[in-house]
Amino acid sequence: MKKKGILFLATVLFLLPSLANDSLINAQVSSSIKGIVFHDKNENGIYDSGDKPLKDIAVSNGRDVVTTNKKGEYALPLRDNAATFVIKPRNWSIPVDENQIPRFYYMHSTAGVTGTKYDGLAPTGNLPESVDFPLLPSKEPDKIKALIFGDTQPRNNQEIYFMSKDVIPELIDSDADFGVTLGDIVFDDLSIYDHLIESLSPIGIPMWYVAGNHDFDYTGSNSVDARGTWYNTFGPSWYSFSHGPAHFIVLDNIRWVVEDDKR
Length: 263
Hints:
The protein has helices at residues 2-20, 157-166, 168-171, 193-200, 223-226, 228-233, and strands spanning 29-39, 52-53, 58-60, 65-67, 73-79, 82-86, 92-93, 105-108, 133-137, 146-149, 178-181, 207-209, 239-243, 246-250. The chain is α+β, with helices and mostly antiparallel strands. The strands form four sheets. Strands 1, 2, 5, 7 and 9 form a five-stranded mixed β-sheet that branches. The protein has a four-stranded antiparallel β-sheet with strand order 4-3-6-8. Strands 10-11-12 form a three-stranded parallel β-sheet, with no helix packed on it. The termini are far apart. Mean pLDDT is 89; it is low at 1-26.
C-alpha cells in the first residue's frame, strides 16, 4: 500500500509542469536562472561558509521541474512574470517571514504585473547572479496535523476583527504542523490582505495560502495582471510542498477573462 501511495504522488508531481502550462502566467522564456539549495546552518538566509549544499532537491519555474546536483546547484529556464521556487522536501522546513508566510520563491517580472486599483508586483530589476534557497532540518511525523481554513473572505477590517476575537484565540498554541488558508482570502478588497495576514500570524505556524476568485484585482486586463497583488503578497499562486509522507500540490484554476468591455 505504501508503495502505491509513493507511485501516485510521483505521478501527480510529474503532472505539475503540464497543469501549470496555461494562460494564467503566459510567461515567456527569456534566459536561464540558476542557484543553490542549501542547509542554512547559521540561519541567516545566505549561502556562505559552513552551509551545506543539498542534493536531489526539486526546484521548479512553474513549468519545468529539476533536481539539484551534488553541489546543490540547479538551472531552469527563466520565465517572465513567473516564480522560481524550491519544492520543500520531507523533514526540511522553509524560512517564514514575520507573519508566518513561507518564503520559498523568487518572483521575476521585467515590467511588473498589476491592475490599476491595488499595488501589484513591481518590476524586479536585474536577475541576481545566483538565486539560492535555504532549508532548515525539521523532523516530521507520519501523522500530519494541519489547520485548514475555508474561505476566510472578510469584506472589511471589521470582519477581520470579528475573526481575530472569536476564532484566532482558540487556535493559538495549536499543535498543528502548519495551516492552509483556502481560496478567497478576502472578499475583493485586496487592501486588507496585510491586516488579515497579521491577524492569523499569532497562531504561530507556517501558513500556506491558496488563491481564489475573490483574490483578483478586477481592474487587471488579464489573469496575470489581476494576480499582481497576489504575487506581491504571497508569491506564486501554484506551487507544491511535502510534509511528512504526503505531497501537496496547490493549483490556481481561476481565470479572469476580459473581452472588449465584458469582464
